[in-house]
Write a structure and sequence with these properties.
This protein is mainly β. It contains one helix and twelve strands. Strands 1-2-3-4 form a four-stranded antiparallel β-sheet, with no helix packed on it. A four-stranded antiparallel β-sheet has the order 6-7-10-11, with no helix packed on it. A hairpin with a 2-residue loop joins strand 3 (about 50-55) and strand 4.
Length: about 180
């Protein structure tokens, strides 16, 4: 049971985020990405989201978690020139032993991404608007299936295609801490 004091007698806990059905798309040269309004690439639903290069999907999943939950969407947009995606997100209620340890809206997460010269960039900036420092795990789940774009769209005749040489790298620089 969630602890509720007199000042918060009508507080409703938010421990998850609603489903999303409006994709966002970025493209630069032979590289393009399809993701949801959070900026995540999810493997369920139609299964068409991903990071594609020259017709091959290199990322089939890229999902962000704060604690054990996905953040709530405040807003997201793609610039008019289709170069930059940006999203403003916040934490859901983070529970500790059925009590709200970090109320929703305490953390603000700004996510921006763009594609350039065959490279996918994803940048995160987190701000704590609470009165004290917090410790929250930040996690990115990712997966790659290297499926051909025709396979992804449901055409099985192209399933014999294989990727001969792949260089896949992940760089995760940490430039600060949540204070």
């Amino acid at each position: 049971m969630v602890d509720v004091n007199a000042a918060q007698q009508f507080y409703i806990t938010a421990t998850s985020t609603p489903a999303d059905d409006r994709p966002r798309v970025l493209k630069h040269g032979d590289l393009f990405a399809i993701f949801n309004r959070h900026g995540d690439i999810e493997s369920f639903g139609l299964g068409e989201e991903g990071l594609f290069y020259e017709g091959t999907r290199f990322l089939s999943e890229l999902v962000l978690y704060l604690g054990n939950s996905r953040p709530l969407l405040l807003t997201s947009t793609i610039s008019r020139d289709n170069f930059l995606f940006s999203a403003d997100l916040t934490n859901v209620d983070i529970l500790d032993d059925d009590e709200v340890a970090i109320p929703r809206g305490t953390l603000h997460l700004h996510r921006s991404k763009f594609l350039w010269n065959g490279i996918y960039y994803d940048k995160f900036r987190i701000a704590n608007y609470g009165l004290s420092p917090v410790s929250v795990p930040f996690r990115l789940n990712f997966d790659a299936d290297f499926a051909d774009i025709f396979e992804v769209r449901g055409t099985r005749e192209f399933s014999a295609l294989h990727v001969a040489c792949i260089q896949l790298g992940v760089v995760l620089p940490l430039l600060g801490q949540i204070v």
